[in-house]
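New here. Your pick:
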Amino acid sequence: MPPRATVADRPDRKQAILLAAERLFAQHGYHAVSLRQIADEAGVPLALVGYYYGQKHELFQAIFAHWGGTIDERLAGLRAALQAPERQRLPAVVAAFVQPVLKLRASPEGESYALLVARELYHQREDTDRVLRSQFDPMAQAFIDALHALLPQADRARVAWCYQFMLGALLHHLSDTRVERLSHGQARAGDPEAGRLLQDFIVGGIRAALPRPTATGASRSTRRHP
């Protein structure tokens, strides 16, 4: 039987369970962690995990619901980016995609969540993928729509590939520590300055993969079709 609500209904314990689940899922993956391990990490009785969140997949969903504001922030940034001067729109769209996640990764509260998202998007298991699709696919479609509107000469398939490459670069940056070794200690994992470099890299890659029509190409087209 679950504990009485008068004993169990403590927001600090509920939050502790959520944070413990985030940490363990981020470190070991959803499938490698049990509810008992989460209860032990949170320092609460096992029954409280079920009392607050139900089964493990419901706790997993609750984590993403808790951080839903991050997606809202990225979509709000996307809308603002599309109102920027034309030459600044692509960098602004990329910044709207990248910056909220880097800010989350740099915060003590959001670090585990950012790493959890990176881990589960990379591994893609069927049961967790259902949650990730419902949370992130609508946002992905919005960013692909925006990129397609900015670069209409490209077909949607190429734009979708560029979105995936942008996502891949971001996910790798979230969890990478190898750069410290490869740079002989000159680069630091999670360095905030690397965020700007990441954005420039993504913008340059998109522009190279989806170039705008050149003036020369446009004039040739006009001469062929007066």
